[in-house]
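hey can u check if this looks right to u? its 436 residues, i copy pasted from the old doc so theres a chance i mangled smth
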Amino acid sequence: MNRADGIARHGRLPRSSPFGAAAKLVSGVVAVALVSTASVGAIAAKQVSDDLGDGVAIEGQPAPRSNGTRAPSLDAYEGGFNMLVVGTDNDPEQSAAFGERDATLNDVNILLHVSADHTNATAVSIPRDLVTPIPACRKTDGSGTAPAMAAQPINTSFGEGGLNCVTQTVQGLTGLDIQYSAAVSFKGVIEMSNAIGGVPVCVAQPVRDPYTGLDLPAGTSTLQGDEALAFLRTRHGVGDGSDLGRISSQQVFLSSLLRTVKSNDTLGSPARLYKLARAAASNMQLSQSLNDIPTMVQMGLALRSLPLAQVNFVQYPGTTGGTGVYEGKVEPTTYLADRLFAKIKADESFSLGADSTGIGSETSPSQPSAAPSAPAAPSSPAAPSAPAASSSPAAAPSGGTASSAAPRTPSATPETIDGLEGQSADQRTCSKAFGY
């Protein structure tokens, strides 16, 4: 057994707190990526728009373009973008069955970057206990400004200033400009997974977690609703029982999710897209910049053409067992984080080293022999909508907008970043049960 040392646990009831990094993408990448067709606008744009609230004002983000009144465009989003998806714990809408905490925390934080030429994407899961500076943030109740803090777990930032404060904190941590933000609660994860119709998930050994009620046999099970939420939340059932093990287990779900969406014609089914759009609009707290159905449609169209081998799910690099402010927390591995975000800022694809799946997952026996986490294809691989990608402009260093620079010439082979934990979307993996 390989239990991580000293990862802090919070809360007054024994149930696991976060619902998982995948919660983020189930409502972030999914809620945005799957709302990706003009059919949504033709069938239900008005109804979906009625479900949207006013949106959350985020410092530095653009204002909404239309408040949902524009007709959806058949064109994909122009250029690249960065989107932060936050999973909140102790949300007022969550059931008492999930436990009660002392504060509302952003226990799941996933930053999604899509390159300007739409040939690669990276989703970075930031551990909830990662210690980082938190800037001064205006309080959500309008009572003033919470003071800046030099070293705090990142999951305290939501309590300081809501979605805006989490966004400002992640921008400072990563050096990236974030154009779009969203927050989702437990109910949102349930509704989004139902809208998708279930996701097949592999577990290498039987997974049982009395805290979340999860009880899965070894092999592949199709999960949705409460069971999908239980899988995404489980910490005690997988890996070494820590949040870091949970992140790699959640990536098993996320990679299967994207493969499912690509293979079951979700992007081409008006009925599924409408159901998903309603679930997203009704159960997510969106930034004002994202609170716009046509924008979501265009972002989804950009994501449709991404080749699975060029979509990486990675964990923000960090270590446990530190001292001082890092005792019981996660200390950033700065040199590795610098390499990761240099690639993201440059819009360059990369591959992961051998045995990168982390402590909560392992490569599935059914995985083809070709190394999935180190794609040998050029960084602009052929795809149905990719012919124009090689002529797309590179993104500005901050990401999110197209530049007028000359087209990039992709490198023949993506650089490998050894030491990063994660997997590519085409890599078939299985969660490892606790203690294995």
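The two ends are 6 Å apart (CA to CA).
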